[in-house]
Design a protein that fits this description.
single chain, Rossmann fold, 3 domains, seven-stranded mixed beta sheet, seven-stranded parallel beta sheet, 24 helices, 22 strands, about 15% strand, magnesium, decarboxylase, magnesium ion binding, pyruvate decarboxylase activity, THDP-binding
Length: about 600
């Protein structure tokens, strides 16, 4: 009788990660990691060491939004606790991240010298308990007999439920052997096909309600992006021809050039959008993620359940009836059987700006008086403003680009940008962690390169976000990632002098809690190990970067028009100057 081949537990785990699409492992190396990391190369994985757990966690988040799943590796104890914050975002926003925590063996714990919180051997259990609030499942691989099955189960749970999981990996089990046979069969992580009878019943109920409606519409949310079903969703949107809105989390889920694309529906973009959706007798909500800033106050609670058709990952709700069907299957079926002659459509005039709109046109249902209150006319026409920037960005972005925006001004402003088809928008719409965007851009850029994705990675951050996670710039440079970073600043470059109008000086009291260190932002890439690319036409080299500073609209347009800026490899690092009291329209509305 032939002996079954065996592999180590570490090799089994890392091979499974590779099989589900993970090629790079973000993390922080510690005393318990080192032995485990020796097994990475044999499984075909690449190590991406980060300066701290915050950067590593945000990078894993960005990586997963492009690839569909990611992995984070930290030592147990203080390091694993530092990862709680960056795991909160993926938990809130349905991002599958495998958090592997290397930990000491039971014999090593006897000495009580390993990041102890209590004077007993329950420390590892305490750390796992703390992660229960931000992970969907937890396990400790301490039994060789069940280790392989536990690994498979957690990876399936992570992907299928689209949430982080916690996997403790003690040093004592790394070299233990398990049967290798399961590795010959790829892990089944995709949902099973819908039961035909249930899918048919759900489809009939959905179409009955849709055909009865006089003013139906569609709202696409972030779940469509998380489950990688945007082609299916877009097909349904195209086939139905219904007015279609997206939430902030759902931005980039469909082609924004479609005739029936109606705009981004957020808490601040109310007015005509809220009236239209609130007055709809059939709202088709696809991939819902609930939050006041993602979907406006009053939705969906403000709508009658009887008027809502909600598609979630593993079920659909038609009024108060729930059907156990996955979004992909039911939407495909609806696209193929819908009878457009029975669907009544009421066109919606988009309050969303489209490329070619004149500046100042159509401001989401605001009256002339409302807009006058928000006027930024006190600034000169040459000054870069949010009202101009985010619409102008629509012209510069290209299909396939990945656009990341920091919480705050950039997140609010990007709702006015029209994305080209195939562009992916990434931001933390729910958790809103300051400093998220920069390391997430590193993870996204790495994932895009692994996929062979055409397009650039572009990130907009403020100075506070830059200072929170600036080390991510070093990681980008170390791995020669092509990223364009825009740092929005209110200071003259190379000085600590900010722009403050007389009106602002009088109306806004200076408070110390708004102060922050003044950095020479343009020096960050060099400080992080970058090598300047001097002159034009220079060949690409390791850790290459270019720095720029723009203070006027003309300078932005000139920079965006340069071929080398648009196409050059390496890092483009741009300081973009705006007045101190400048803010996007949505931010000003939120503060009224």
């Amino acid at each position: 009788m032939a002996t079954e081949s065996k592999v180590t537990v570490a090799h089994y785990l890392f091979t499974r990660l590779r099989q589900v699409g993970i090629k790079s492992l973000h993390g922080v190396a510690g005393e318990y990691d080192i032995e485990a990391l020796e097994y990475l190369e044999g499984a075909g994985l690449k190590w991406v060491g980060c300066a701290n757990e915050l950067n590593a966690g945000y990078a894993a988040d960005g990586y997963a939004r492009v690839k569909g799943i990611s992995a984070l590796f930290t030592p147990s104890g203080a390091s694993s606790l530092a990862a709680l914050s960056p795991l909160a975002g993926p938990f809130a926003e349905n991002i599958p991240v495998v958090h592997i925590v290397s930990c000491p063996s039971p014999s090593q714990l006897d000495g009580q010298a390993h990041h102890a919180l209590k004077n007993d051997n329950s420390n590892l259990g305490l750390f796992a308990d703390m992660h229960k609030r931000v992970t969907i499942a937890q396990t400790h691989l301490n039994d060789t007999a069940t280790a392989a099955a536990d690994i498979d189960r957690l990876l399936q749970t992570c992907y299928q439920r689209s949430r982080p999981i916690y996997l403790a990996l003690p040093t004592s089990i790394l070299a233990a052997e398990v049967i290798a046979t399961p590795l010959a069969t790829p892990l089944s992580i995709l949902p099973q096909p819908n039961t035909p009878e249930i899918e048919a019943t759900a489809s009939a109920a959905i179409l009955f309600q849709l055909y009865q409606a006089t003013r139906p519409c569609i709202l696409v949310d972030g779940g469509a992006l998380r489950r990688k079903i945007t082609p299916v969703v877009e097909k349904f949107v195209r086939e139905s021809k219904l007015p279609t809105f997206v939430t902030a989390a759902g931005k980039s889920a469909i082609d924004e050039s479609l005739a029936n694309f109606a705009g981004v529906y957020t808490a601040e973009n109310g007015g005509a959008m809220r009236d239209f959706i609130g007055g709809s007798d059939c709202v088709i909500w696809i991939g819902g993620l609930g939050d006041a800033s993602n979907a406006p106050a009053g939705f969906p609670k403000g709508l009658s359940t009887l008027r809502t058709i909600a598609f979630h990952d593993s079920y659909a709700e038609v009024g108060y009836a729930r059907y156990t069907v996955h979004m992909r299957g039911i939407l495909n079926r609806l696209s193929s059987v819908i009878d457009l002659s029975r669907v009544k459509t009421t066109p919606f005039r988009p309050s969303y700006p489209r490329s070619g709109d004149s500046p100042g046109s159509d401001y989401s249902g605001l009256t002339a008086g409302d807009f006058a209150k928000l006027s930024l006319s006190k600034h000169s026409d040459i000054t870069i403003t949010h009202a101009w920037l985010w619409r102008k960005l629509s012209e510069w972005l290209q299909p396939g680009d990945i656009l990341l925006t920091e919480c705050g001004a950039a997140f609010k402003g990007v709702s006015e940008t029209v994305l080209p088809n195939g562009c992916l928008a990434i931001s933390q719409t729910l958790c809103k962690s300051c400093g998220y965007a920069l390391p997430a851009a590193q993870g996204a850029a790495l994932a895009a390169r692994e996929q062979g994705r055409l397009g650039r990675t572009v990130v907009f951050v403020g100075e506070r976000g830059l200072q929170a996670t600036a080390q991510a710039v070093g990681t980008m440079l170390q791995h020669n990632l092509d990223v364009t970073v825009f740092v929005i600043t209110d200071r003259i470059f190379g000085t600590n002098k900010g722009y403050v109008t007389d009106e602002t000086e009088k109306s806004v009291a200076r408070k110390p809690w708004g102060d922050m260190p003044k950095w020479h932002n343009g020096n960050v890439p060099a400080a992080m190990g970058g090598k300047t690319m001097l002159g034009r036409g220079q060949e690409r080299r390791e850790r290459a970067f270019r720095t720029y500073g723009v203070m006027t609209k003309e300078e932005v347009e000139r920079l965006w028009g340069e071929k080398e800026f648009k196409e050059a490899g390496g890092m483009n690092f741009v300081e973009m100057y705006m007045p101190k009291d400048e803010a996007p329209r949505a931010a000003k509305l939120a503060c009224r």
